Amino acid sequence: MPVPAIMPLLATAGVGWLYYRRIRRQFGHQVYRPQRAALRIALLSLLACGLLVAGGSAHRLLPALAIGGMAGAGLGWLALRHMRVWVVDGVRRYVSNPWIGGVVTLLLVARLGWRAYRFEVPAAGTQPLMASPLTYGLVVLLVAYYLVSGIGLVRRMRALPTG
After folding, report:
1. What pTM did the predictor assign?
2. For the segment 87-124, what is each residue's pLDDT rounded down to a tens digit?
3. Which helix (H) or strand (E) holds 56?
4. 90 alpha carbon, distance to own chain's centre
């Protein structure tokens, strides 16, 4: 069954919408939702484990894994230092630093856009799509950043007084 010509456009629009929503959440105050934070940390931990296994099995990706992981953890720690948290009427709220998260996300989007522009899709039976050390390193950076900042946010919210 042939794929309609509009499907790649719809898929691209869907991914663009997801990125837009993610970047939009970087700005302004947010209400803290513990279940959502725990789910996000669990999913990012699974993704991080998968990235560790993939990076460990491909020796040329090891430097990207190490550099991306350290840079992402460092940026996550820096973002935590600039994050504000407070409680108003029993509701926990926070404002994250929009610039750090926004720049990290835009770096990955720019790299994926560049690869799509250059049409660097591997042929069947060749190297996988994430075999580019630069793209792999940016993905590791993004996952490490969100994992460190997510765990730090949970810890800071637990330390707040309840009222």
Report:
1. 0.79
2. 988 899 999 888 887 787 788 778 777 777 776 555 55
3. helix 34-57
4. 29
b/e 71-107 (16+ beta carbons within 10 angstroms → b)? bbbebbeebbeebebeeeeeebebebbbebbbebbee
Q: Domain boundaries in the chain?
A: 29-159
- Closest Cα to residue 150, out of 6, 10, 34? 34
Q: How far apart are CA 114 and CA 110, in angstroms?
A: 6
Q: pLDDT per residue over 132-155, tens digit each? A: 888 888 889 989 999 999 999 999
Angle between the N-to-C axes of helices 98-118 and 62-81, in degrees from 0 to 180, rounded to the nearest 10:
150
Q: Name the amino acid, one letter, at 20.
A: Y
The answer to whether 84 and 94 have CB atoms below 8 angstroms apart is yes
